[in-house]
Amino acid sequence: MDNLKTSRALIDDFAAGRFEEAAAFFSDDLKDALPAGRLGEVWGQIQDQSGHFVSSGEPRAGAASCVLVPVKFEKAELEARVCWTPDGRIGGLHFAPALPSYVLPDYADPAAFTEKDLPTGSKDWPLPGTLAMPVGKGPFPAVVLVHGSGPNDRDESVGALKPFKDIAVGLAGRGVAVYRYDKRTVVHGGRLKASSITIDEETIEDAVLALETLRRQPGIDPKRVYLVGHSLGAAAAPEIALRDGKTAGVILLAPSGKPLVEKILEQSERIARLDGQVDEAESKAIEEVRAFLKGMKDGTLGPEARLLGMPAAYLADIEARRLPEKAAELIVPVLVLRGERDYQVTAEDIAAWQKVLEGRAGARFKTYPKLNHLFAPGEGPGNPDEYSAPGHVSSEVIADLVHWIAEGRL
Fold this sequence. Notes:
The protein is an alpha/beta fold and 410 residues long. It folds into two domains: 3-97, Nuclear Transport Factor 2, Chain: A (Roll); 110-260 and 314-407, Rossmann fold. The chain is built from 13 helices and 17 strands. The strands form four sheets. Strands 6-9-11-10-12-13-16-17 form an eight-stranded mixed beta sheet, with helices on both faces. Strands 1, 2, 3, 4 and 5 form a five-stranded antiparallel beta sheet that branches. Strands 7-8 form a two-stranded antiparallel sheet. The model has no long low-confidence stretch (mean pLDDT 90).
């Protein structure tokens, strides 16, 4: 089966109202989450927002096993992301605004580094990845990048931004190798059992394997391999480093200091207040999160309960781990960075990490007044809309990472 052609045919089936035919390609898990009877409703909602369907465009390969199909409507141009399982079924389907092509940041010097494909993962869960290597004679210090929550690709693409790509080209051009990989939930989303997944399967196991993969590469100094986690990946980084046992140091980029459900509630409330008023839909969404959080604490949630698609058991598992407290067990240097315009991870979150790491000589903290959750610069209060605008990780962050890794200081 040609996944490119079939992905485009899927969109054409939607446009023609052939929803049973479209659903025939779905994995069993996707059929359960998005049955054929709901496809017409979803397609109708998309057209309510974007206007009538006009045409589908030439599909192209995206990250991992996903195909990107341009879809033109009367009022907007979207991109359908169709993700395929190893057994030839569609395991994921998402629509998002079409975004501009990635452009290298000004601080990237293509002549100073090379990139090559480098797989990682286990036999059952193989993952594609990319190693960015400095040009010159090694061995070089190196980092593994660990994603935030959700099905992230190796670039940690969010809207128009690719922070992991920025970090890779920025550091590799300055003498630090960078390894990044597609997350298991992107590559194998159709095979994973959502009801039983924990952060072990989602993040920790593969991060430990990625560290091992990187150390085996020619030109890498195995004693100077660092771990860089972002958001949820940052919160999990101490546990990853402890399991690995060989990590030279840990860098936490915007680490959450609270349980994930509490963060979702906090962010929902903050976003709702951005325009100065909370409408009925926003109020209802906030109350749903509050009820879910109360149900978790009371133990009254049913086994099928979900919040934003995440099972209650998954969220309860993260809360039970008390991830920030793991940092107290680390004996390696720790660097914690945050953008002050970050509406997702607040100063209160960082205070939780400062409390855990208080008195540690090897712990350093730094904030950046104009940067957001993805460490891109901006003005005014941080908001999700700015992720749709082209941008890059700040050059100051790149320089700080290089100095801390190479010299142990900022």
